[in-house]
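It is worth pausing here to work through a concrete case rather than discussing structure prediction in the abstract. The textbook approach is simple: state the sequence, then state the predicted structure, then interpret. We follow exactly that order.
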Amino acid sequence: MTDAARAVTTSRIEEQSNDASFASLWDELVWRGLIHVSTDADELKALLAGEPITYYCGFDPTAPSLHLGNLVQILLLRRLQLAGHKPLGLVGGSTGLVGDPRPTAERTLNTKETVAEWVGYLRSQIEKFLSFEGASAARMVNNLDWTEPMSAIDFLRDIGKYYRVGAMLKKDAVSARLNSDAGISYTEFSYQILQGLDFLELWRSYDCVLQTGGSDQWGNLTSGIDLIHRAEGASVHAIGTPLITNSDGTKFGKSEGNAVWLDASMTSPYAFYQFWLNTDDADVIDRLKVFTFLSRAEIESMAEAVATEPFKRVAQRTLAFEVTSLVHGVAATEAAIAAAAALFGQGEINDLDAPTLESALRELPHTTAPGSTQIAQLLVDTGLCDSTSAARRAIGEGGVYVNNVKIEQADAVLESHILPSRMAVLRRGKKTLAGVFAE
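Step two, the predicted structure:
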């Protein structure tokens, strides 16, 4: 992270805080819906209320960016840090080479060079959300540092001896794969041992006593607990957060199989903002609890607004602004808001920067065409009209706009209305939009 980026990050995270209205950090985590499964709750509540502890969460570089599911874990790391505890952000340079069990298929094994590159990307993303200063300063670690020097014989003698195959087979992720047509390779089967080794190494090197992760990884979380108990006779803890799903049961953060990424080049700030803005009324309060640092009083006020004036979508707009600002910064968020307003004729399209406008148009039905193409034909090409005759009729009725300028002539061409950026917003009526990129 550059010094400038770190300065911006430090300024932002200094504004964050846990909610003092709760009797304990544990009570707030429960209220926010962040505890799905854990080791002894009373012990954890006391542990988190006591002297500072070191804790960690691991992130595997199986893609060049983290996604919204990972953001749940990162924000949990931050909430614990705000209470004075010391986070370790682990990026899995070794476990990323192996992959962990999935319900239906083997994970694609990427090259060592690709994984190393992605380690750097993920590390820089995680660093944005944590403080690296003060008594509770975060530290970043890479599990390749302690697994790469270890020989296969050392691994079997020093770590493998503590594991019982029968117990490993009972893990939910493993048993699901064993009962599938694909089965499970030894490579993926061994993942839980590698994750257990991580916890053991961090316990020995940093006195790390807590691991957090998604509840679907509970078998891997407990692997480290069992290993530390057998190898060192010590007791440590784990917290599994719930999998975030929508009220209809669909997996959160997925749209037609595409994840919502934290990297702006993979999911633009505009698309990111729109994702949150489109949150269903039934889900928005839960999202505010998990993904923002708004207080209980503020969120309860949002809940009242949803109940009494849902059409104003105050909660959705608050959620979209808070999370997009958290991930991409206030300036990018304001640009996304301005773009949305301009597209619908409530702002100046000419004032939008080209990258923001392009990302917005890519989210709409869009086409590429020569500047000589007639607007009527573009209406057909983008699906805004069924035929050129219908398109000409819509123009004649005064319902067609390019860059918020009404088209008066049925034979008008794109070149006369294109922006200097060679882009155009095509609108039929008040709300039906498409994008055009001029060749």
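Step three, interpretation. The first helix runs from residue 3 to 13. The chain has a mean pLDDT of 92.
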